[in-house]
Amino acid sequence: MDKKKPKKVFVQGAIPPEKIANSIANHQSKTNIGAHSIFLGQIRADEIDGKTVSAIDYSAYEEMAENVFHEIREAAFAKFDITCAHIYHSLGEVKTGEICLFVFTSSAHRKIAIEACNYFVEEIKANVPIFGKEIFEDETHQWKVNK
Amino acid sequence: MKVTVKYFGMIAELAGKTEELLEVPSGTSAIELKDRQVRRYQIQDPESVQLAVNQNLDNKVELNEGDEVAFLPPFAGG
């Protein structure tokens, strides 16, 4: 049931650390899980041509992005023996040092949880139509491109 | 025929809008629409722009009345 239901991935603004703590707490009743793997994407204060990034303003083709997130979930559940998986991504402005992506995979054993988590992160970066405007301290901006 | 065109990221910035309804001749392909809009809005580095027709990343299709065509700059999630 956990894997079939399309879930809301986008959250407005930064992902609060409390959300991560609560997600861990919510899994304490699921005692068939032996390992969680967590990836947290944090906004880096890149320096480009002498200017420092102060925030990223995320936007997305939301309808398509939600569908792609769902397809990635389906593929991950087919590929890995995971118990559950949760993804959250920010929209709007996220300041440097704050969290913009939270991927949480759980499995009976560590290897699968870690591999699945990595799979989610790589697929999200490559295939989800999300766009990032890097805002500098002087309020100019440039558009981010994933490497 | 009419198609809905959506712009995102730096393309929305260049176009000065996020969406418009365009009248195109029937038989227009997604690639033809892309070329036309690239010229109109002077979109830089058009090879990096992907088109999604009704949310499918396929540039080779012929467009139909009511289609939604999205102009997607490079992805930057995560």
UniProtKB/TrEMBL annotation, chain A:
Q: Which GO terms describe its biological process?
A: Mo-molybdopterin cofactor biosynthetic process
Question: Per its UniProt record, what InterPro entries does this chain match?
Answer: MoaE_sf (IPR036563), Mopterin_biosynth_MoaE (IPR003448)
Q: Does the keyword Signal apply?
A: no
Hey, what's the signal peptide range on this chain? none
Gene Ontology MF: a single term: molybdopterin synthase activity
Question: Which reactions does this protein catalyse?
Answer: 2 [molybdopterin-synthase sulfur-carrier protein]-C-terminal-Gly-aminoethanethioate + cyclic pyranopterin phosphate + H2O = molybdopterin + 2 [molybdopterin-synthase sulfur-carrier protein]-C-terminal Gly-Gly + 2 H(+)
Answer yes or no on keyword Methyltransferase. Answer: no
Q: In which pathway does it act?
A: Cofactor biosynthesis; molybdopterin biosynthesis
Keyword tags: Molybdenum cofactor biosynthesis
**What family does this belong to?**
Belongs to the MoaE family.
* Protein name listed in UniProt: Molybdopterin synthase catalytic subunit
Organism of provenance: Christiangramia gaetbulicola
Taxon lineage: Bacteria, Pseudomonadati, Bacteroidota, Flavobacteriia, Flavobacteriales
Automatic annotation (TrEMBL), chain B:
Transmembrane parts of this sequence? none
Keyword annotations for this protein, in alphabetical order, are: Nucleotide-binding
Q: Which GO terms describe its biological process?
A: Mo-molybdopterin cofactor biosynthetic process
| Protein's UniProt keywords contain Nucleotide-binding | yes
Record-linked Pfam families: ThiS
Got a GO cellular component term for this one?
molybdopterin adenylyltransferase complex
GO molecular-function terms, A-Z: nucleotide binding
Quote the InterPro entries the UniProt record gives. Answer: Beta-grasp_dom_sf, MOCS2A, Mopterin_synth/thiamin_S_b, ThiS/MoaD-like
Q: Spell out the family assignment given in the record's similarity comment.
A: Belongs to the MoaD family.
List the protein's name.
Answer: Molybdopterin synthase sulfur carrier subunit
What species was this sequence derived from? Christiangramia gaetbulicola
